[in-house]
TrEMBL record:
Keywords: Cell inner membrane, Cell membrane, Lipoprotein, Membrane, Palmitate, Signal, Transport. GO terms for molecular function: ATPase-coupled transmembrane transporter activity. Its main location: membrane. It holds the Pfam family NMT1_2. Belongs to the bacterial solute-binding protein SsuA/TauA family. Residues 32-257 form the Solute-binding protein family 3/N-terminal domain. GO terms for cellular component: periplasmic space; plasma membrane. InterPro entries: ABC_SsuA_sub-bd (IPR010067), NrtA/CpmA_ABC-bd_dom (IPR044527), Solute-binding_3/MltF_N (IPR001638). It comes from Gracilibacillus halophilus YIM-C55.5. Residues 1-19 form the signal peptide. It is found in: Cell inner membrane; Periplasm. This is Sulfonate/nitrate/taurine ABC transporter extracellular binding protein.
């Protein structure tokens, strides 16, 4: 009887120790939070937050942080919709378009402003807006932020794309390929997010024909926004707040340490795209960008109205419930 009791106690003790070991392993594994962004200068806050460990600092050591880069907003939004990522930086255009089509997305902060420059290929004989008629222009994706900015500006000047009965020919492609597209003569105009506009200017002898302050919504529209899902906000607002806090921390770092941020951006873009930008390119591009986490809701609504006018959206948008500023308010 005594032997049986000893064996029972020993078994119970081992069981408790095993259970404690499992709990410890679970705590070490923890939750995984996946952050998405693009390898361009408008998304530098995500690069800085990654490199400086701000996400890890704000989320805690029991959280595993993973990062995923995207070539365009459609791919990012699909990843958010299917739960492949929890949050990240994307252009406002894709966020608005997918929200209008029923995707559960919330804009919880801004990432940057500016950075969209319209470049003409050397040899395209484009000297003014009228010369763009009949020419081929390239954007990262149909209806993306940069596309809407350019087509809004052109429509205000009486010129539209073939998609809506006009004369401009539209094609799409990754910004990192724009230089080769210019060299081959396949496109005449590039609607280029920085730093690719500066690459074209310095390395392909291209000319800016519409700068970042002139193009529609150029200085007021967030060039990138911090987005997540409404479900995550409802289920884990503390997690969302930590993500926003890391983003704010990165934005402050960028504005206080621009040279260090430029170096981080050069290294990250090289790692993702295989293209190492020169310091000269980065310096030129940096002058066309501003970094802020505050969202201008009125501009986003005006941008959405223009997207509808250009027929990228099927229904007139109402973005009053798209933006959630509770996490960025001081």
């Amino acid at each position: 009887m005594k032997k049986a009791i000893i064996l029972f106690v020993l078994s119970l003790t081992l069981g408790l120790l095993t259970a404690c070991g499992n709990n410890s392993s679970s705590a070490e594994t923890g939750q995984t939070v996946r952050i998405g962004y693009f390898p361009n200068i408008n998304h530098v806050p995500a690069m800085v937050a990654k490199a400086e460990g701000f996400y890890q600092e704000q989320l805690g050591d029991d959280i595993t942080i993973k990062y995923q880069t995207f070539a365009d907003g459609g791919a990012f939004m699909n990843a958010l919709k299917t739960g492949e990522i929890e949050a990240g930086l994307v252009g406002p255009g894709p966020a608005m378009n997918h929200y209008s089509n029923g995707t559960d997305v919330k804009i919880i902060g801004a990432g940057s402003t500016g950075g969209t420059v319209i470049m003409a290929r050397n040899g395209s004989n484009i000297e003014n807006l009228e010369d763009i008629k009949g020419k081929t222009f390239i954007t990262p994706r149909v209806g993306c932020t940069h596309d809407v900015q350019f087509e809004t500006y052109m429509k205000e000047n009486g010129i539209t794309s073939e998609r809506i009965g006009g004369e401009m020919v539209h094609t799409t492609g990754k910004p990192a390929t724009y230089e080769s597209m210019f060299e081959s003569g396949k496109v005449d105009v590039a609607v280029a997010p920085e730093p690719w506009a500066s690459v074209l200017q310095l390395e392909a002898d291209a000319e800016p024909i519409i700068d970042e302050t002139e193009v529609s919504f150029g200085t007021t529209l967030p060039a990138s926004v911090l987005a997540t899902s409404g479900d995550l906000i409802e289920e884990n607002p503390e997690l969302v707040q930590s993500i926003v806090d890391a983003h704010k921390q990165a934005t402050t770092y960028i504005n206080e340490n621009p040279e260090e941020a430029k170096t981080l951006a050069i290294n990250e873009i090289a790692e993702v795209t295989g293209q190492e930008l020169s310091k000269e390119v980065m310096d030129l591009a940096w002058d066309n960008i501003g970094f802020t986490y505050k969202v201008d809701a009125e501009t986003i609504q005006a941008f959405g109205d223009s997207s509808y006018d250009l027929e990228f959206l099927k229904e007139e948008p109402d973005f009053s419930d798209l933006i959630d500023t509770q996490f960025i308010e001081e």
